Structures are given as C-alpha cells and as structure tokens.
Amino acid sequence: MNEFGVKYRIGIFGxxxxxxxxxKVEGCPPxxxxxxxxxxxxxxxxxxxxxxxxxxxxxxxxxxxxxxIIDGRATGGPIVGLVRNxxxxxxxxxxxxxxxxxxxxxxxxxxxxxxxxxxxxxxxFSGRMTAGLVIGGAIARQLLERKGVSIxxxxxxxxxxxLEKDVPFSIAEKIxxxxxxxxxxxxxxxxxxxxxxxxHEANDSIGGIVRCTVVGLPVGVGxxxxxxxxxxxxxxxxxxPGVKGVEFGSGFKCASMRGSEHNDPYIIRNGKILAKTNNxxxxxxxxxxxxxxxxxxxxxxxxxxxxxxxxxxxxxKKPVELVIKGRHDPCIVPRAVPVVENSAAAVILDxxxxxxxx
Length: 358
Ligand SMILES: Cc1cc2nc3c(=O)[nH]c(=O)nc-3n(C[C@H](O)[C@H](O)[C@H](O)COP(=O)(O)O)c2cc1C
Description:
By secondary structure, this protein is of the alpha+beta class.
C-alpha cells in the first residue's frame, strides 16, 4: 500500500536504484499557488552528501514536475513529481539476497516476495523513498503557510546527547535549517555531530529523536474516531523507515503522572482560550485544542553498519559473519528532519481539508 490520505492523497513510487523516485499527489485544490523552487528547497534538505555525518552517495535530487502544475498553479489533476536516481551502485546489495542484513528489511522482504523484490539499494524499503513524502508534503506546507499554520521539526536527541533547553519557535527554524544535524542549539549540535562522527569511526551507527511542532492550527482539526490527529500522524510517522517510537505531548511520561499534574489548566490570554501547560501535545479527543501540536519521533540507529555482524546464509542455512560495504548514513536523524516536517504537513492539510478548514 503506497498511498496515504483521504482528501489530500500522496502516492509514492519508484525504488532506490531504479529509474526514479517520486510522488503522485491528488486532492490539491485547483488554482493553489505552488512554487517548485520551494519543493526543491525541501528536497535539498533531505538529499544526501552533507559532510561526515551522511552517506557518501551524492545525489542532487533535482525535482521534475511531470503534471498537475501549470504556471505555478495546481491544475486540479494529479500532481506528479519525480527525482531521477543518478548515483546508483548496486554491487554491494547482491550479497544481501543470500545473507540478510540484521536490522534491515532484507529477510522479511525476501520471504514475502519470494526473492523477487528489488533489493538494489534497499529497493522500496530504502530511506530514499521518503523523497516522495517530501515532495507531497512540501506542496501541502505551502497551502498551510497561507492559512497561518507553520511546522518545524528539529533534532532534539542523538544517542545520549539531548537538547536541554527549548529554543523559541520563531528563531529555531532558521538555525535548524542551517544546521547539518538539524538542531536549534549550536553547542548541542556540535556535540551531536561529534557523537555521529565517533559512531561512524567505530564502524557503527547511532539513533535519535526528532521533535515536531505545528503552530497556528485552528481549534477542532481532526476526524475522530480513526482520523484523530494522533491516529493519522502516528501512522504517517511509523511509515518513515527507521521509526520505532512516536509520542505526543508528555507521551509515555503520562503513565507516571497524576491527573492534577497532567491536565493542562485553561487560561485566557488576550481574550483567547489557551492552556497553561501542554502535556496533551495540543490534542484532546483527537482534535486540535489551540495549543501547538507537539510530537516526538524516535529513530533507531542505522542498521547497515561496517562492523562485522552475525547473520546466516539462507540457502546453505549456515551462520555467516556479514561485513557490509556500500554507502550508508551513520545516523538517519539529520536527513529525517525534513521528512518528518513535510510529511506532517501532508497529514495536517488532509485533516484540514476533511474538516472544511481549507
Ligand atoms: C532519510 C533516511 C535515510 C536512511 N538511510 C539508511 C541507510 O543509509 N542505511 C540503512 O541501512 N538504513 C537507512 N535508513 C533506514 C532503513 O530504510 C530502514 O531501517 C529499513 O528500511 C528497515 O525498516 P525499519 O527500520 O522501519 O524496520 C534510512 C531511513 C531514512 C528515513
């Protein structure tokens, strides 16, 4: 199943080492102004090759719009955008058809598809597929910005290095976009980068957490029961390869809190009904409550590591020590920041369209 959404639908296509990757977007209101340059900006943030903390695969990821946008406006037909795969070297992947990588999709994919799956570069399981999510999301966020809704994702943890103090939304975006690691605090960003470099030097990898904040949402966005903001947003986030946890507001911490601590007391500020705290993460009953919608996404350490690992030869049924060559991100998190941010935009726009807010 490669489609997501009810009114604003993103279908992703292609594979890591095939001809191209991309997205087909349906449901964008006709006449909507869409800047291809702004989609390209988001793709550039996701593309590999940003120094020692990224894979050595070099791809510019240049957007080509096939249909659906004419003279900078949505036609109302499907918007199809693609990026060609230019820097493909599949040689390292043949081995994984027989000796699956621990932690990657090789083994279950091999069994499910009877060995016919595209294994080159991870095929449809590659993190590269997220370029399609960025294309669909980058269109959605342009419509949201015009409705006063802004979205910011940022790296708040790499390994054990965590962002200690919050940087206000209004200034964080510029810093996050300029930071190779995607963190709003420069000193923490330097420590995070060092942690990634160290993991890489040890032929290993490292995970982390991306926090995403949506501000400016009107009250009442969300379509309970199964279209609650949490339901749909977490389904989107868990579709991103490498994601192993999603929590909203105080998240799992809520289990150890009392109601008197967890409830967010209502207050009036400048005539507006707000809450004093935001343990709910801006969502009550699956609906936006006027506070920032806030969630955290945990990424596992990249599974493809250069360190020797125990695997098996699925034909001989014998143990094998696997040494992975190929080009891999020592940490997924920095490149996942724009993926979280833009795919969240697609979810929010879809819910706003369903609720008649757009
Ligand atoms: C932007 C991005 C880049 C990724 N790069 C790599 C990579 O270089 N090597 C790798 O083994 N996994 C990478 N992944 C993660 C794998 O695609 C993922 O772990 C794998 O498909 C198995 O899926 P799962 O971790 O969700 O179970 C990346 C994920 C994302 C979102």
